[in-house]
Amino acid sequence: MMTRRQDVLPNSDFLVHFYLVMHSGLTSEDQDVLNTVIKHCPSSFFFLSLPGFTILIGDFIRAAARVLSSDMLEAPRLEAHTILGSLVCFPNLYQDIPLLQPILEAE
Questions:
Q1: Which of 48, 50, 43 is nearest to 19 (CA)?
Q2: Which residues are CB-neighbours of 85 under 8 A, at least 6 positions away?
Q3: CA–CA distance, 63 with 81 (Å, rounded to integer)
Q4: Rg (CA), the chain
Q5: 17 by DSSP, 3-state: which?
Q6: DSSP 95
Q7: Closest by alpha carbon to 64, among 30, 95, 27?
Q8: What is the pTM of this model?
Q9: pLDDT (average), residues 2-14
Q10: Measuring CA to CA, which residue among 12, 1, 14 is closest to residue 46?
């Protein structure tokens, strides 16, 4: 995952695909996929200030809530709390940010 500041911003095509993969993982119905994304996403992701990163904030909040409400013993609760703690300042900075909506699975 992208966790270090880059001298050059990533290619916009890369970011589009990266955000799509993150969105799919964070909204996945598979709890194991969700747990993996939350466990391996450092809170420093939000402070990289990648173009368009705020579009995933709603996904991270919903995903962290699902992890915290999970009854799985191996759920990454500490990581979910850390992510939520990292997002505390964002409502003050970004009042009306656009958010992605969960992808509805075809039945």
A1: 50
A2: 43
A3: 11
A4: 14
A5: helix
A6: T
A7: 27
A8: 0.79
A9: 73
A10: 1
Residue type, 13: D
Residue 35 half-sphere exposure, CB side, CA atoms within 13 Å?
Answer: 13
Any idea where the domains of the chain sit in the sequence?
A: 12-93
Give per-residue pLDDT as tens, 46-76: 888 788 888 888 899 899 999 999 989 989 9
Q: How far apart are alpha carbons 42 and 39 in whole angstroms?
A: 8
Instruction: Name the burial class of residue 54, with classes exposed (0-12), middle (13-18) and buried (19+) by CB atoms within 10 angstroms of its CB.
Output: middle
24: its two tokens:
């799919």
The C-alpha atoms of residue 32 and residue 13 are separated, in whole angstroms, by 28
